[in-house]
Amino acid sequence: MDIVVKGRKTEVPERFRKHVAEKLNLEKIQKLDGKVISLDVEVSKEPNPRQADRSDRVEITLRSRGPVIRAEAAASDPYAALDLAAEKLDARLRKQHDKRFSRRGARRISAAEVPDHVPGVATLNGSGAGFVQEEREAVPTKKIGSLEVQGDGPLVVREKTHVAAPMTLDQALYEMELVGHDFYLFIDSETKEPSVVYRRHAYDYGVIHLSTDTMVTEANSPEAGGTLGG
Question: Using one digit for the tens of pLDDT, what is the confidence trace for 148-163?
């Protein structure tokens, strides 16, 4: 593997190329990442005199079979910028190397050790069945509206009951516009079933009708469940 040094809108002197080869030790890099494919060094220069202290920028790109690693730095001359970028590259390579090593070296823990390493996990009783500690079961239960909630549950539950006379679809649209809402729940005077009219786009409206399915009602009733269970 060779180091490719190129300049972006600037010439790269031969002396600097030799310095790059000395600074970026390929043998050392391959020890940290043995799957390196290419190593590119790009040098660029900022012509703005106000940024003279950061006029030279060096970007190092290391490509391997793993993730691409980049390190860049700017300084008053390309040699100082290269030194800074090389230090960043070395630090990132070591971090990546340590992460791979720790993954390989991590041992598997036994089932008995799981509660010590994973907080909040259920433990096993003598017969091998799972159980939750008593304090975890003692979650306070409260009633909010018509809901029975364990723990914090919903923060806000509002429950309202309205007395409504059956009305036509036209009248429901008028009532919706009157109250300024995007939907309106009403009892359809023709079907005597609950319906919802709602605003779609511009002056288009939609309507949803609910009808009672006797088969579904019977299937969900306690009597039906008792019959199946018996």
Answer: 766 655 555 566 777 7
Q: In this structure, is the dihedral angle defined by the CA atoms of residues 16, 19, 21 and 24, taken in order, positive or negative?
A: negative
Q: Tokens 């005597």 map to which residue? A: 192
Please tell me the predicted confidence (pLDDT) of residue 229.
Answer: 42
Instruction: Find out whether 82 and 23 touch, Cβ atoms under 8 Å.
Output: yes
Domains for the chain: give ranges and CATH numbers: 2-104 (3.30.160.100), 166-216 (3.30.505.50)
Beta-carbon contacts of 103 under 8 Å, excluding residues fewer than 6 positions away, are: none
Tokens 């017969």: give the residue.
Answer: 127
State what percent of residues in the chain have pLDDT above 70: 66
Q: Which residue has the tokens 């106000």?
A: 50
Mean pLDDT score of the chain: 76
Closest by Cα among 32, 168, 174 to 96: 32
Tokens of 80: 């100082």
CA–CA separation, 7 and 45 (whole Å): 9
Q: Which of 167, 161, 159 is nearest to 207 (CA)?
A: 167
